[in-house]
Design goal:
This protein has 99 residues and is an alpha+beta fold. The chain contains 2 helices and 5 strands; from the N terminus they run ββαβββα. The longest helix is centred in the last third of the chain and has 14 residues, at 85-98. It starts with a strand and ends with a helix.
Length: 99
Amino acid sequence: MIEPYDIAMADLPARRVLHLDLYRLAVPEELDDLGLRDEFEQALLLIEWPERGAGELPAADLLIQLETVEQSPVQRTVRLHANTPEGIHWLSACRNRIR
């Protein structure tokens, strides 16, 4: 359910990243059992199935949408949407790397 990473990029401070797959949560309150409260302010959280943690998760800084391309089941379209200044900062850093 949790995969930790530590990343460092030249234009961003080093940051702990947690990839959370919440698919197996039966109720949002189960997040307390994972001991993530301290991580909410310190780590960048990448969350799959965030609706499973509704009401227990902080607001998203950045939304990432993946959609399949009709002509190719292996290709994906990626859309990024920043909701906060932190999200805007990450989105800007991502854009600079893609170009």
